[in-house]
Design a protein that fits this description.
With about 350 residues, the chain is an alpha/beta fold. It is about 25% helix and about 15% strand. It is built from nine helices and eleven strands. It has a nine-stranded mixed sheet with strand order 1-4-2-5-10-9-6-7-8, sandwiched between helices. Strands 3-11 form a two-stranded antiparallel ribbon. Helix 4 packs parallel to helix 5. The chain is globular, with a radius of gyration of 19 Å.
Length: about 350
Amino acid sequence: MLRLLASGCARGSGPGVGARPAAGLCHPGRRQSRQASDAPRNLPPSPEFVARPVGVCSMMRLPVQTSPEGLDAAFIGVPLDTGTSNRPGARFGPRRIREESVMLRTVNPSTGALPFQSLMVADLGDVNVNLYNLQDSCRRIQEAYEKIVAAGCIPLTLGGDHTITYPILQAMAKKHGPVGLLHVDAHTDTADKALGEKLYHGAPFRRCVDEGLLDCKCVVQIGIRGSSTTLDPYRYNRSQGFRVVLAEDCWMKSLVPLMGEVRQQMGGKPIYISFDIDALDPAYAPGTGTPEIAGLTPSQALEIIRGCQGLNVVGCDLVEVSPPYDLSGNTALLAANLLFEMLCALPKVTTV
């Protein structure tokens, strides 16, 4: 049986806002059942009472669990970069994103979202991937996510290279059937193969189409750009019914109108959000494996994710953060913030 490894410690730390801990050690986080809607929920510790360097290295310093039971949503790391084609290092992405997430707080004043007052959330640690066997890693990821979604828990994934989205979508489709996809990326990731291999980070969505995991009428790809080996690199995608929004069609404009069209297209269908950090211009996110110039801005990334409020989001991932290429940590900080925004956009999150 696949087991999830706790990231650094078996339990989380920190009281909720307004609860003062005893001097010295902070209190361990408590696991709560979602059965009672008025029961207390996990809250990241407030920096007013617990210093940011204190506690285990979990996402937002939330409690760490080994089971998804009782959770509405959970952060999961998939530290895999065996499928990369250029610069490696995404295996270190989940850990660095967690480190930078100490800057995040509990509410979103810009959208009015109150995720921790609405959902029971924890960190499920990392999938125990096999760095020496990509196919075996995909099997392990699929099995882990089948357990997570079967428990009614919405996964928010810290990657890892983009190969990981393929086995995650296998697990999603097993529960929901073919899902819609909002894919934010510099690349379409629909290549058939490279060096004779069909499983790598440039091909996850080709494999998903092959297996019928996607509702192709509800697939939107945003931020696509870069040089190519052909003058019509998006023929396959559009022939499948994908909407491909090029980066140059996003330059110097708000993406709020685009997301209005996306919401209308998706309707109430279960959708999955897959966000490759290289969708953003490398001026903002240099720590990635296959950077492309002239990308999206952080404010446009926020417009995209916030534009998903009201959609039936069943899972999310943030992939391709490669910390060795950004020693400042700013790429991971940006990724942590985007994951928080994804949490805020989930169904059943109260907004005020």
